[in-house]
Amino acid sequence: MALLRPRALATCVVMAALALLPAAGVAEQAAYRPYKPVAVTLAGLVTDKSLDVFRKQLAGIVQRKDRAALAKIVAAKDFFWEGDLGAVFDPKKSGVDNLTAALRLPDADGRGWAALGAFAAETTVARSTTNAEARCAPAQPDYEDADLAELTEATDTDVVDWSYPRAAGLQARATAAASAPAIETLGLYLVRVLGYESKDRSERDRAWIRIATPGGKIGYLPPASLVSPLSDRLCFAKDGNAWRIIGYTGTGD
Predict the structure, then answer these.
(1) In whole angstroms, what is the distance from residue 237 CA to residue 106 CA?
(2) In the chain, what is the straight-line distance between the N-terminal and C-terminal CA atoms, in Å?
(3) CA distances for 48 relative to 73, 131, 238, angstroms
(4) Where in the chain is the domain with CATH 3.10.450?
(5) For the residues 41-46, what does the mean pLDDT come to?
(6) Least C-beta-crowded within 10 Å: which of 77, 217, 228, 239?
(7) What are the CA-CA distances from residue 7 to residues 113, 119, 250 (Å)?
(8) Measuring CA to CA, which residue among 206, 197, 210 is closest to residue 224?
(9) Which one-letter DSSP state was computed for residue 129?
């Protein structure tokens, strides 16, 4: 089974697939076998205090839903949009026009602003693999495609079923509670996601995550502790001494 390097083009597919996953139970627990984890490397992680300050500024703009202020921190030209499935990107328009189109702003339900706020708060930022100047959040994972192909073949799954921790040492709990006993400590590798402890998709970022551990156990991870390889990404770069938002990777349909 051949797989292409996953891009952030299928976030909607991820959510649709996870919505169909069954609730955990004795029968389900018996159905999962141990699997050989695929190691993930978050290469080129960026720690820059000036970028942190910029992202705090972005968070404030999101809180106010201030499009005029947002326009001031988005690159006026040479803005890129990867994964524009709907062919919405217009190189003749300004960067902020294309960014708001990607995020579907203004939005009645607030999801676009919420997504922008999540990018501002994301703990992993890394050098882009396609743009030398860009620093993108969340960090793009690197792993062996052949190993992922072998893993999905062995478990009868697809890329949408797998995510990775933001850092090694994450503990899977016996139940969806911080006080529950730890059943397995995870490394920096792909983990099989079974579902979320919330039926409301808008609450997923605050819901505990149900997983199958490499040891074959059903476990639970804290909200927002995993990242999908198919996640959308927001990219930043310095324009002189000032940071700007210069690109977006995600779905455009």
Answers:
(1) 25
(2) 27
(3) 17, 18, 11
(4) 49-140+232-249
(5) 78
(6) 77
(7) 22, 17, 8
(8) 206
(9) S
Helices assigned H by DSSP within the chain: 11-19, 26-31, 49-64, 67-72, 95-103, 111-121, 145-155
**CA dist., res. 54 & res. 199, Å (int):** 34
CA 177 from centroid of its chain's CA atoms: 23
Q: 16: which 2 tokens?
A: 């649709």
Question: pTM of the predicted model, to two decimals?
Answer: 0.79
Amino acid identity at 215: G
pLDDT tens per residue, range 74-90: 998 899 999 888 889 99
- Tens digits of per-residue pLDDT, 209-219? 999 999 999 99
Question: Distance between CA 6 and CA 40 in Å, rounded?
Answer: 13
On whether the 49-140+232-249 domain is CATH 3.30.1370, my answer is no
Q: Which residues contact 175 (CB under 8 A, 6 or more apart)?
A: 220
In 3D space, the residue among 250, 143, 233 whose CA is nearest the CA of residue 191 turns out to be 143
Domain with CATH 2.30.30 in the chain: 11-42+154-227
C-alpha to C-alpha distance for 92 and 84, rounded to whole angstroms: 15
